[in-house]
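User: Show me a protein chain along with its predicted structure.
Assistant: Here is one chain, sequence first, then C-alpha cells.
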Amino acid sequence: MNKFWQNIIMSKLLLHICCGVCAVGLINKLKKDNVEVTGYFYNPNIHPFMEFLKRLRAVEVLSEQEKLPIHYETAYGLDEFLAGVAPDGKIYAPERCLKCYEMRLLKTAQKARELGFDSFTSTMIVSPQQNQAAIRNIGQKIANDTGISFKYEAITELYPECQELAKKRQLYRQQYCGCVFSEYERYNKEIKDES
C-alpha cells in the first residue's frame, strides 16, 4: 500500500471530481489502497452549458460503474465563475487558473466539513495540464484555514492510465480544461496551427 494514503485509511476522504477521465484512474487507485472515498462534483468553471452537462453525465456514469457515492452541485455556474476569477472584468490566464483552483478546492473543503469528512483532495492532482505546485499550495492553505486535511500527491503519471480506462468505459473525454477561456485557447491554437 502507498504510504501516502496509509494515514487516511481510517478517515473519510471527499474527492473533488472535475471530470470522469481524471476520476476513473484515481478512484481505482484509492480503492486499491483501501481509502474510503466519496466524490464531490463542483465545477462552475465548466463552459459552455452543453460541455457542463457532458462532464456531469460522465461523472454520473462513473458513479454508477464504481458504486461510488457522489454529492453533486448541478447548477450551471457561469455567473459565480466569472465573479470569482475576473471580479474586475480583466481576465489573465495565470491568475484566472489560480482563482479557479482556489474556488473549487475551498468549496470542497467546506463541503467536507459540512458532511463530516476529515480530509479532501481533487482529481486535478492527476492532470499534467494543471499547475501542480499551485494546487498543492492552495490546497494546503485552505487546509490550514478550514482544519480539513488536504491530501496531495502529484500523480500525473497516472494520467495515461486514466485516458485508457475512460476510453474503455466509453466515458466522455473532453478536449480542454473546462472554462470558456481554455476552450478559446485550445481551439484558437488549432485554427492557427492549420493556417
